[in-house]
Amino acid sequence: MTETTLCFPRRTRESTGESIEEVLLIEKRRGLGDGLYNGPGGKLEAGETPRECATRETREEVDLEVDPADLEKAGELTFLLDGERHSVCHVFRTRSFSGEPTTTAEARPTWTPVDDVPYDQMWDDDHLWLPGVLEGNTVVGDFHFEGGKPLDEAEFVEYDLKWNVSFDE
Ligand SMILES: Nc1nc2c([nH]c(=O)n2[C@H]2C[C@H](O)[C@@H](COP(=O)(O)OP(=O)(O)OP(=O)(O)O)O2)c(=O)[nH]1
User: Fold this and answer.
1) Residue 74 has pLDDT above 80, yes or no
2) From start to end residue, where is composition biased (Basic and acidic residues) (predicted)?
3) Rounded CA gap, 111 and 127, in Å?
4) pTM, to two decimals
5) Is residue 168 part of a domain?
6) Closest protein CA for atom 31 of ligand 1
7) Looking at this predicted complex, what is its ipTM?
8) CB distance 128 to 160 below 8 Å
9) Atom of ligand 1 nearest to the CA of 45
10) Which atom of ligand 1 is nearest to the CA of 61?
11) Which CA distances in Å does 13 have to 9, 79, 85?
């Protein structure tokens, strides 16, 4: 069973007297979810913790530095494909980072107002859990897909969500 991560860097930008809440999204340029908007993230490597993976993937995909200790666990999402567990994704958020997000071969980053997240260009389940995560809630979810591999071509059919769970990692 594959473990994966997602990292959602957050900032508040002041613009002409207004505070705009933003999240760093990437347009993924290869791999699973190619062409969709998402947070930086990917598969755990051997010996890595989810936090270490989220830090490494954020550096590799957009050249932004986040400290594993500064990541706040916000979600644990299980993706099921044709009734079998396909992957578990650890979701983190943080307001602490250094550097400027940079386009790489893997991803094109964009600071996006949280009120303007392009859910119609994201995975079909994201509109169910990402708004709550961006509001500061925690979530555990199961998401069922059907139709065979790859996961991003399967059909999203049903889900179960629990909000405001506590994580001890
Ligand atoms: N937002 C969102 N992300 C998802 C969904 N399903 C799913 O696998 N992901 C994420 C988890 C991972 O960050 C990413 C897939 O990871 P991956 O490891 O297969 O992708 P990759 O090709 O970039 O992998 P890597 O070699 O960089 O580790 O997509 C979903 O339904 N919604």
Assistant:
1) yes
2) 45-61
3) 18
4) 0.97
5) no
6) 123
7) 0.96
8) no
9) 28
10) 27
11) 13, 34, 39
